Amino acid sequence: MSENIIRISGINPRQCMKCGKCSATCPAFDEMDVHPHQFASMVVEGRVDELLASETLWKCLSCFACVERCPRSVEPAKLIEAVRDCVIRQKGGSYLSPDDIPEKLDSELPQQALMAAFRKYRK
Amino acid sequence: MPINENKEWKPLIVAFCCNWCSYAGADLAGTSRLSYPAEVKIIKVPCSCRVNPMFILKAFERGADGVIMCGCHPGDCHYSTGNYYARRRMTMLFSMLDYLGIDRQRTRVEWVSAAEGQKFAAVMNDFAKTITELGENVKLGDLRCKKQQD
Amino acid sequence: MQRIGVFVCWCGSNIAATVDVDAVVEAVKNEPGVCFAKNYQYMCSEAGQALIKDAIKEHNLTGIVVCSCSPRMHEATFRKTAEQAGLNPYMVEIANIREHCSWIHKDMKEATEKAVILARAAIAKVNLNAPLQAGESAVTKRALVIGGGIAGLQSAIDIADAGYPVDIVEKSPTIGGKMAQLDKTFPTLDCAACILTPKMVEAAQHPNITLYTYSEVEEVKGFVGNFNVKIKKKARFVDSTKCTGCAVCTAKCPSRKGGNEFNCNLDTRGAVYIPFAQAVPNVATIDTERCIHFKTGKCGICQKVCSAGAIDFEQKDEFIEEKYGAIVVATGFEILDVTKFDEFQYTKHPDVVTSLELERIMNAAGPTKGTLLRMSNKEHPHDIVFIQCVGSRGNTCRDKTYCSKICCMYTAKHAMLIREKYPDVNVHVFYIDVRTPGKNFDEFYRRAVEQYNVDYIKGMVGKVWEKENGRLAVQGVDLISNRRIMLETDMVVLAAAIQPSKGVRNIATMLTASIDTNDFLTEAHPKLRPVESPTAGVFLSGVCQGPKDIPETVSQAGAAAVKVVGLLAKDKLVTNPCTATPNELMCNGCSSCARVCPYGAIDYVEKEVNDHGKREVRRLATVNSALCQGCGACTVACPSGAMDLKGFSNRQIMAEVDAICR
Predict the structure, then answer these.
(1) What is the rounded average pLDDT of the residues C423-434?
(2) B13-149: what fold?
(3) Which of residues 377-416 of C touch A (CB under 8 A)?
(4) Could you tell me if residue C150 is inside a domain?
């Protein structure tokens, strides 16, 4: 499964030096249960199940601030995207359903987040 | 030339090794008693850039089945840039080997440092295996001379 | 025809157990040129060598082949043996039948066959060997040091103390380098100026040292022991023999808008300036790009106020040519340009500074006279955030891949000094790792944490922005507690990566010294020859070779000096006789060989040649055998096959190929 994520993302998570700049940059940090800097090491350790179940997948705005600033080219947003893809590809997986969206909305939610979330819906 | 059916065919492999890295790597393979086929014969050159592509063609002409060239890793050349020249020259040579009727796999360039005895032995084993699988090389003889002999 | 002797060594059982040495002797006896063959238990022993010497004399041998261990082991031994028997040492060839044969093969028949073939190849080569003479070249007993920072000064002083004249070339108007800009030094917290300025004065007053400040190396020719260097002394427009350094002109100069480089452009200086009070030489320099006189032809106030009459607007660049035996490169470093890191607001907010800028702010001779102030409003700061590894240890286009090595320590130093002087200031340090290997270094860092309550946060800063109240907001992360950190601060200090000075590329090209992908000069061997460049006669000192702190720089500078002294102490250098040699009748002067030569050993001369009775003047390649290291790159590059390498000639290698493929 880890290999799958590495293949989809095209990222080598072993390049991570655990500086935390991704999490320091992330605008959605406080919303997340698993923080961006944890993704690289969790993929390396093979803790993919936790990632698949993580709220973070749906909180990540795909704003790519972490991609922009990562000094080691680990680019966590791409890893997160890959995990998200894995969930979407799982038939019947417990991913975000459109019906759940309204209750999660709040006035401060950036529009970009909504845009990014569209592709996360069930087809 | 009559072929001796009883004798098992063994390839003939020439290895050009630079004095500073690969020859020392071969020495280390020896000191560490790492075996590789006896068909491999090493010729010492000061640097991989001393290897004229003509030497390689000459070896094929004389009946070598495989020629391998080993030098220092890129950036580690004792003469700072020699292996870069060697690499370019070999790329040129490789591109014309097919034209000459020599299988591209019969030549190889490998970077082996003085500390890589293990790698040297592994490379030689692998190369000898490849050459054995490819079989005997057709000699790059001068056809005109051959006709006269016939 | 050569008369060749073949000596097969048993090496006890090392060879003899797998190689049938008698069979080898029998097999080589009929090789062309061989008139003597014998095996013996230990060829390298006293008795074995005597056997070789006797055979040379008795059979009048002109060349010998020793079938034994690797030439890397005993080639020198057997060459010496041959020389003692009156044979040219380069008429000896070794067939490596131990490392390349007996030790790696188990089957006796197979190993013996291979040993015979290796011996044949060596015999074929010796048949074409020619006696070679190792040349000699003289040594100019003078050294050049490029760069006048602490590395260059230390090397120069050490060489000069050993009794050899040294010239220092420094491109800025004063020696002292980066260390002169530092306030205090870790881990002892003594002031940089207090330990550096005596060294600067010592260098200036040393009878064996000549300073060329505001000068640059223009051209380097020659080779180890005999470098010819052209130095450009840029015009200062101040007569340094008359200038007393009274600094009246610098105070009166009306052109005051330009930044002061010595203070990292945090304040300004006049167009005529002395970089700092302790500058050596203490002489003013006119910056022509800012001088009103050079721009408009008017002004000339400095000339009017100078009581010594030292201002000379007509001064011209001077060129000096000098010969040197050895060159030390000590070009040092510069701070990485951090403007690319826009998340830290360095270009937008004056309170975001680099560590070197903070160094000037903390320095008593700096822009704030040593008081820690915010550069935006000159007010006392209450919170300071340090960000580590800015531009170090990354692999993107903005970053350097290496660790800059000094930042962890100087940040601990800054944090400690600030907490010591201003206990009301809160200091936060965002770090990825704290790296403090070195004597008393980790203790120093621990003191910052334990004694001075510096807040070390394991994590990075994501972004910095200005708040409405003019203070800075810092958004970071604490990886240990896995939580977001939001701080409001007055200053942000960036520990920017260090990189080799820009000029080093140019210098490396002139010296044919190699540089790595980061522009650091490469050493001849990373462990065993760390202060020598692969180019003979060129030595490395200080950060130009890799990031290092002051104690390390000083040790390396001393080591480089010893290597220089060791070279200059020799009267003659023995040169490698296996050099390239062109055939004049085949050379067409195309320059292909010179282009691939890594040592610049190939030159061209117009020479009259006699080509089958036709006399004509041609452009011909000549090889400087003292420079040529014998790599052979030119031999292959030559389109007409005119270039050959002594000791590894085309014919010799072809003969070896023939012998192996027979």
Answers:
(1) 96
(2) Rossmann fold (3.40.50)
(3) 389, 393-396, 398-399
(4) yes
Q: Is residue C442 domain-shared with residue C482, that is, in the same domain?
A: yes
Minimum-distance CB partner of C650 among B26, B52, B82? B52
Q: How many helices (H) and strands (E) does chain A have?
A: 9, 0
Number of CB atoms found within 10 A of residue C131's CB: 12
Report all structural domains of chain A as residue ranges with CATH numbers, in order of start: 2-118 (1.10.1060)
**Could you tell me if C486 lies within 8 Å of chain B, comparing CB atoms?**
no
The 8-class DSSP code of residue B74 comes to T
Give the residue-averaged pLDDT of C434-450.
Answer: 95
pLDDT of residue C56: 95
Does ipTM exceed 0.85?
yes
Which residue segment(s) compose the domain that C274 sits in? 248-305
CB contact under 8 A, B49 and C632: yes
Burial of C67 (0-12, 13-18, 19+ CB in 10 A): buried
Same domain (yes/no): C493, C390: yes
Report whether pLDDT(C415) > 50. yes
pTM over 0.80: no
The alpha-carbon gap from C396 to the nearest alpha carbon of chain A, in Å, equals 6
Q: How many domains does chain C have?
A: 5
Domain boundaries, chain B: 13-149
d(CA C4, CA C55): 10
Chosen from A17, A21, A38 to mutate, greatest number of chain C CBs within 10 A = A21
Domain boundary among C499, C529, C558: C499
Instruction: Find, among C548, C531, C542, C547, the residue nearest to C400 by Cα.
Output: C547
**Paired tokens of C48:** 């074995």
Its sign, for the CA torsion C279, C281, C284, C288, is negative
Residue C651 at interface with chain B, using a CB cutoff of 8 Å: no
Structure token pair of residue A80: 């997160």
- Average pLDDT value for chain C: 94
Task: Summarize the confidence of residues C597-603 as an average pLDDT.
Answer: 87
3+ Cβ–Cβ pairs closer than 8 Å linking C and A? yes
The answer to the question of residue C390 being in a domain is yes
**Which of C394, C482, C485 lies closest to A71 in CB terms?**
C394
Asked whether residue C263 falls in the same domain as residue C282, the answer is yes
Residue of A25, A69, A71 with shortest CB distance to C393? A71
Q: Is residue C658 part of a domain?
A: no
User: E strands, C440-589, where?
Assistant: 455-458, 461-466, 472-478, 483-489, 491-496, 498-500, 538-540, 572-574, 580-582
Q: Indicate whether C528 and C619 sit together in one domain.
A: no
Residue C456 lies in a domain: yes
